[in-house]
Amino acid sequence: MSTEPKIHIDILTLDSVQCAACGYMTESIAALPEDVQNMIEYKEWSIKNKEGIAKFLELKGRVLPTICIERDLVFESIIPQYEELIDEMAKRAPTPQMRDRILSLRDKGFEFDKIQENLAKAGAGMKTRKDSA
Amino acid sequence: MAKQLLIDAYRGKKTPVAPWVPYAGVHCAFVIGEPADKYLQDPEILAKGVVTTAKRYKADGIPLLFDLSVEANAVGCELKWWPDNVPSVVTHPCSNKTPEEAGLKLPTKESGRWPTIFKAAQLAKPGLDEIDCVMMGLLCGPLTLASHLAGVRIFTDVYKNKEFAHKVIKFAGEVGAISAQFYAEMGCEIIAIVDPVASQIRPETFREFVTPYAQPAIKVIHDAGLTSSFFICGDCTKVLEEVCKIGTHGFAIDEQLNMNFVRDMARKYGLGFGGNLKLTLALSLGLISPREDAIVSLAAGGTIGYTFAPG
How many beta carbons lie within 10 A of that of residue B112, not counting itself? Predict the structure, then answer.
């Protein structure tokens, strides 16, 4: 298993199941191709539970949904194009090698075959209640 | 509970008091102690939930259903069901094909869950009429339905692959017009186009892809002599002027918008507007007082074209 550092992505949402805007913001990360998936880790933070509210405050969120890359509020109420996502992740890659690898995938485009698996990894739709553990 | 009051407000007219619409959705299932997945697939339970909730909250209008997966499901998208939420769309038949190439057909009254919804409307309507409460029809807007059909790529395609995006969103608009026709036939006096993801795009993209493809549904609603609205979620500040120009009698927004800004925009265009009791901060989390929040919304909204509703 690779010990290479990953790019951290936080997706601040109301609830990616209930809210379509939040859902497709989350899908924009879950549908990144596998080579990109190997370089990132991400999680959905629904503000319907205390943990999500704490993360929203910690990252100084302003609107929902928002994609934060390496703690920067990058896409606020705008669902990104594929290339925009790649460019913003590349800018924040932990190493020049990773930056170059990500940029080499700029023409690859979204992939939809593993979305459900990737959404589950991100905890999408799993913590959408006030009493969610 | 007063239908005419609500219709007047939705059309931008002055009303003696602001009418009230709870977008109860699957909360209706909670009110009658049923799980959301069962509730949304059983016409008797659905009708019971809507009427019980309308009575409980003394609503002037209530959506028959608030579930934006209906249209997608009716043209072939698969769903994942949740016991405490609306279903999620989990397959995108146009992720690499146009609707025509994917063999998608426009829905009929027999497609997907439409038979359930027709039956539920038939059962709920007398109960709602009895309390003078509008049965509202909510249909999935063109960009949100296109997202269900093609997945998140549609937000790249609207810039990089416009021909494909136009084909998908045009088809979505035609599906929406059929939904509008269905809701008109069910007896819904107000029909709203609900396009939450339309807040997540730039104004020029809205003008090119949302405005034209919302027109078929708006025409159906207006030709039937009914009242129209456009519901949008999220921080839609950047596209609100486009929403005002789309051609509906009014619009509704969510808790992230400043109600004074929204009111002034609605008045500029002579439209009805609804919102924006803070669904999350007040109603769900209780971080602010729902009572104080309601007072603030009511004061800002006023009584010209304003409907008090969750945001």
Answer: 19
Residue B184: which of B228, B250, B245 has the closest Cα?
Answer: B228
In a domain, A132, yes or no: no
Alpha-carbon distance of B275 to B38, in angstroms, equals 29
Residue B163 has pLDDT above 70, yes or no: yes
Average pLDDT over residues A75-102: 96
Rounded distance, CA B289 to CA B285, Å? Answer: 10
pLDDT, residue B311, reads 82
Structure ipTM: 0.88
* CA separation for the pair A14, A52 (Å, rounded): 9
Structural domain boundaries in chain B: 3-310
Amino acid residing at B304:
I
Q: Between A and B, how many residue pairs show a Cβ–Cβ distance under 8 A? A: 100
Phi, psi dihedral angles at B99 (to 5 degrees): -55, -40
Please tell me the predicted confidence (pLDDT) of residue A49.
86
pTM, two decimals, is: 0.94
Q: Are A128 and B156 within 8 A, CB to CB? A: no
Look at residue A126 and tell me if it is in a domain: no
Q: Which of B168, B194, B164 is nearest to B179 (CA)?
A: B194
d(CA B133, CA B94): 39
The dihedral through the CA atoms of B218, B221, B227, B230 has a sign that is negative
Residue B71 near residue B145, CB atoms below 8 Å:
yes
Cα separation of A64 and A118, whole Å? Answer: 21
Of B82, B152, B287, the CB nearest to A28: B152
**DSSP reduced 3-state for B270:** coil
Contact yes or no for B262/B237 (Cβ under 8 A) = no
Whether the CB of A48 is below 8 Å from some CB of chain B: the reply is yes
Q: In angstroms, rounded to a whole number, what is the distance separating the alpha carbons of residues B257 and B303?
A: 19
- Domain of residue A72 covers 7-121
Q: Is residue A131 part of a domain?
A: no
Tokens of A114: 């593993």
| Beta bridge pairs of residue B309 | B276
What separation, in Å, do the N-terminal and C-terminal C-alpha atoms of chain A show? 29
Enter the CATH code of domain B3-310: 3.20.20.210
Report the largest interatomic distance among the alpha carbons of chain B, rounded to a whole angstrom.
Answer: 53
Which tokens hold the place of A38?
């190997």
Does residue A116 sit at the B interface (CB-CB below 8 Å)? Answer: yes
Q: What is the Cα–Cα distance from B213 to B71, expressed in whole angstroms?
A: 15
